[in-house]
């Protein structure tokens, strides 16, 4: 039986207590009690609304997402490091827009953040209403190179959706989208 007292969440209280004790630097009975009181006070004075995220965590897909993301970061770091130290002319970049498939703000933001963390790509803008992600790409001079990056970003979005979206195939395969009825 879950019991909740006027916006007090026990997990939040526990987390706030741990933060308090960590900030105090010493685990004592007084610090734990003070942390509990501070946690309760914060939740009573600053209540948060309930948030329904609508995620479905798939561990294998999440592992694939994580491993591929770490691989992309490592490979891009080596490429950018080489561009910085190699002899020859400086490299340029290009700005591209690409349309994401998901209309969910959370998944769009996660995709944009993961793309931004990979060296050589900078997220300039995310228009979530139109699902447009604007990127600056380093060392891209041809349309084919930009297309390769576009496919990588869309593959990253697909991995995010497969790891966390309740129904990723309805987003990734438009022919399987569910009909919305009133």
Widest sheet: strand ordering: 1-3-2
Return the domain count: 2
User: Which strand-content bin applies to the residues?
Assistant: 5-15%
Largest pleated sheet: 3 strands, antiparallel
Query: How many helix segments?
Result: 6
End-to-end distance: 35 Å
Unreliable stretches? 178-182
Sum up the overall morphology in one term: extended
Mean pLDDT across every amino acid position: 89
Helix/strand order: HHHEHEEHH
Give me the secondary-structure category. Answer: mainly alpha
Cα gyration radius (Å):
22 Å
Tell me what the structure shows.
The protein has 182 residues and is mostly helical. The protein folds into 2 domains: 10-45, no CATH class; 59-176, no CATH class. Helix content is 54%, strand content 12%. A 3-stranded antiparallel β-sheet has the order 1-3-2, covered by helices on one side. A hairpin with a 4-residue loop joins β2 and β3 (132-138). Mean pLDDT is 89; it is low at 178-182. The chain crosses the membrane at residues 7-23, 29-48. Belongs to the CPA3 antiporters (TC 2.A.63) subunit E family. Keywords: Cell membrane, Membrane, Transmembrane, Transmembrane helix.
List strands and helices in order, with pairings.
Layout (H helix, E strand, L loop, with lengths): L9 H15 L4 H17 L13 H27 L7 E7 L5 H13 L3 E7 L4 E7 L4 H22 L3 H5 L10
Antiparallel strand pairs: 1-3, 2-3
Subcellular location: Cell membrane
Main location: membrane
GO molecular function: monoatomic cation transmembrane transporter activity
Please supply descriptive tags for the structure shown above.
single chain; 182 residues; mainly alpha; 3 strands; transmembrane helix
């Amino acid at each position: 039986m879950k019991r909740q007292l006027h916006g007090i969440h026990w997990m939040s209280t526990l987390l706030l207590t741990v933060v308090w004790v960590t900030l105090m630097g010493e685990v004592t009975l007084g610090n734990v009690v003070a942390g509990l009181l501070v946690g309760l006070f914060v939740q009573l004075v600053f209540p948060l609304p309930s948030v329904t995220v609508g995620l479905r965590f798939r561990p294998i897909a999440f592992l694939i997402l994580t491993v591929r993301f770490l691989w992309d970061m490592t490979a891009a770091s080596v490429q950018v490091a080489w561009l910085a130290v190699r002899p020859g002319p400086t490299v340029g970049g290009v700005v591209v827009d690409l349309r994401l498939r998901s209309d969910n703000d959370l998944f769009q933001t996660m995709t944009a953040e993961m793309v931004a963390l990979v060296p050589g790509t900078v997220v300039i803008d995310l228009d979530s209403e139109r699902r447009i992600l604007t990127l600056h790409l380093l060392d891209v001079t041809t349309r084919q190179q930009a297309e390769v990056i576009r496919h990588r970003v869309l593959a990253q979005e697909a991995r995010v959706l497969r790891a966390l979206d309740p129904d990723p195939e309805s987003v990734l395969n438009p022919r399987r989208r569910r009909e919305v009825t009133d």
